[in-house]
Amino acid sequence: MSSNSIDNSEKIDEFTNNSTNVLTNVESAEEKRLLKKIDLRIIPLVTILYTLSFLDRVNIGNAKLAHLERDLGLTGDEYNWALGIFFLGYVLFEVPSNIALIKIKPSIWISTLMVGWGAIMTGMAFVKNFSELMAVRFLLGAFESGLFPGVVFYLTKWYKKSERTYRISLFFSGATIAGAFNGLLAYAITNLDGKFNLHGWQWLFIIDGVMTVIVAFFSYFLISDYAETASWLTEDERKLAIDRLRYDGGHTHTTHFDKHQILQAFKDSKIYIYMFLYFCLLVTLYSFSFFVPTIVNGLGFNTVISQLLSTPPFILGCISCLVIAKLSDHFGVRSPYLIFCLLISIFGYAILIVPNASTAAKYTAVCIVGLGAFSTIPTILAW
User: Residue 325 and residue 332: Cα distance in Å, rounded?
Assistant: First the structure.
């Protein structure tokens, strides 16, 4: 190797080390201020969006308690089919939606999806039979499919790897907030039963859907696409926001992609291993989220009390999400916390299947499942 090559290599190393040192020094002051500014602008908004998304997909569980099955004449497993068809639409359109997201501005794509599923949610109040319910649930899944993976991708354009678990948990806590809020909201809304000749479950779908459409309109203007185009950041802040992601490694600082990069994801074996793990976790999460009102009702409580008692498990899930995420980011490990949360869920479900367990013990078990199930999702997503 020539002396010139050695000199050039040393200069490159020196430049890289100096750049890293500069960024590290900045981190104690400017980067912390920047991070706080990004948090205040990004996290509350995406949390509200996901709260509405989760609310709209699981409110059918509360509608069941408000006699949805009876009014639509559902028999046998038809209610379960209506739950499942949502995920068919979700799975089919999830990947195409994220591919569209990298071609279209997040502010446009995400807001448009919200208008779509908000309108569908409102329309679900007027279905008359099983076939119509199936069609609407499928469309709801198709339109909602873009939000959750879209926001996870979107957050990687703002946060470093060491910051993501906690931020993902903050926005995912919208799901737990939605679950808690849904029980209280459903209790209040279903009391409108009979108003304007509409059933309580119809009012539930209408109000949830209209809220989504209203928020979607404002999100067109409030969602910031990427750091380099954020008008609320100064020029120096925009440069720092991009640089800190560049030095964090990978391609998270880029906002343009080609077909080769998309194909790489399909060829990566780790993606398919992750899919299997994620599938297993979601079986636990959604079976719990959809059936909490029914489980509580099955313990002997009436409809009103069941709606209210559906709230605490989700609140506990929200707390555990934030605590586990903070610890995971702090120590820089994922799998120990993931396994710990899974063991908590297993313990809760084990109590639920004990035949002679008291009502108090079984309700406590429901809360324990909530503690474990929700916190697994932000952990594996960040991993």
Answer: 10
